[in-house]
Amino acid sequence: MDDSGLTKGRKPVIAHDQTKKFTTDSNINLATRQTSILDKGTPRPWRIGITILSMGIQIILDLTENVAIGRSYPETEMFQGIDLSPFNAYDLGISRRHALLALDGDRVVIVDNDSANGTLLNGERLKPGQQYSLRNGDHLKLGMMDLKIELLLNPFELA
Asked: Which of 1, 3, 21, 89 is the S-S candidate for 94 at Cβ 3.0 to 4.6 Å?
């Protein structure tokens, strides 16, 4: 083996003509940075987990604005908010716009929307139209559906 280009304890010297140069393919799209609301100084959203206890299914959402909890309209099968229809909501007595998850300053609140079968927070019936603070681990009962609330990310506790 020819070691004329190597000297013990030294790195080999590579000439510029030994480096392979790639040509730029004009069909390649260059990466561009998408600006998100976080880049514009908007605070991070709350991340909330809602577990349907009877099924062990968790719905995770980023809460940036008020959102309704209920079930879809049978005619359109549309619902803007957290649609509990796939989880037997009608049979469990959940109204179409049963309750509202809302932001109030640095807290998340629940408001019963005068639902037909009511909303319970940790076993206490909510008065329709009034805000009640939610805490990590709280239990909600919408009609006959039992839910557990997890506050997974509190933007006010970030360093």
From this structure: 89
